[in-house]
Amino acid sequence: MRTIRLTYPHSLLLEELPETIAAIGFFDGIHKGHQKVIQTAVNKADDENMESAVITFHPHPSVVLKKDVQHVQYITPLQEKQKIMQQIGVDRLYIITFDKTLSSLEPQAFIDHFIIHLNIKHLVSGFDFSYGYKGKGNVQTIQEHSRGIFDFTVIDQVQSGHQKISSTRIRKLLQSGHIEKAHELLGRPLIVRGIVKEGDKRGREIGYPTANLDVSSEALLPKIGIYAVKVLFKNEVYEGMASLGYNPTFTDNREDPVIEVNIFDYNNDLYGEELVLEWHRYIRGEVKFDSAGELVEQIEDDERRIRDYFHL
């Protein structure tokens, strides 16, 4: 997959670009609804012997359009989004910088510049896709704005439990600890990836060594608590338990939550290594214990529950 970053105005030449069938949207989470949009474009491209593309945006429009939003956390940060697009089989990923200049483009100008001039011959979008200044362009106006140069397909909403699958719905599930339902809507486990950094080594002292993960500040994390997790490292998959929180038994003034992972039946040094963490089940909330002994008793119970969960 080729990744191409664009800002307005871009300098790509129409005559140098292949005829392409593209899916367009922000696609945070790349959930089952998004997957239907993207897979439709990939399949059409295969049928027409053209290249497939995804056109997406970064950062989230709210960072630019809302004064009170300075930072957004994503279900799929940009690096993760790129990896999933490649796995789906997308040939080209266009990442358009969303800035104030882009937000002020009239719908026709947006279509001319980022669809027609990218040699898109068929565009696929979700039913609620909008474009151009104040979202004035939508699936009702796209035929007019296409100038007859490209065709388009609109994908109806994909539902689960009689509700639309959406990034907002998935965010709420993750932030309330309903991990397994979020996975159902995503079509895969939520993952974060991070580098193992040095921690305070208390886990090793109490018999449960942990890998402390340094993850991107753009990664959306689930509800604070203890989780059943799987850890992907060097093409191997390990079971384990993760604590996401502030470690209140030993620390009173931590500002940001930390991720500490105990990998079952693994004792090698992991400092500096990248781990991929799959969140599988919320086990319990974070608790401040009166002693390290009480904490160890609870961790032992957590381990039993999580091992049972993975081996049901």
TrEMBL record:
Pathway involvement of the protein, from the record: Cofactor biosynthesis; FAD biosynthesis; FAD from FMN: step 1/1; Cofactor biosynthesis; FMN biosynthesis; FMN from riboflavin (ATP route): step 1/1
Top-level enzyme category: transferase
Keywords of the record: ATP-binding, FAD, Flavoprotein, FMN, Kinase, Multifunctional enzyme, Nucleotide-binding, Nucleotidyltransferase, Transferase
UniProt cross-references to Pfam families, sorted A to Z: FAD_syn, Flavokinase
Catalytic activity: FMN + ATP + H(+) = FAD + diphosphate; riboflavin + ATP = FMN + ADP + H(+)
Protein EC: 2.7.1.26, 2.7.7.2
CDD domains given in the database record: FAD_synthetase_N (cd02064)
Domain Riboflavin kinase: 185-311
GO biological process, any: FAD biosynthetic process
Record GO terms (molecular function): ATP binding; FMN adenylyltransferase activity; riboflavin kinase activity
Stored PANTHER family: RIBOFLAVIN KINASE, RIBOFLAVIN KINASE/FMN ADENYLYLTRANSFERASE
Family: Belongs to the ribF family.
Name the record gives this protein: Riboflavin biosynthesis protein
Originating organism: Lentibacillus halodurans
Organismal lineage: Bacteria, Bacillati, Bacillota, Bacilli, Bacillales
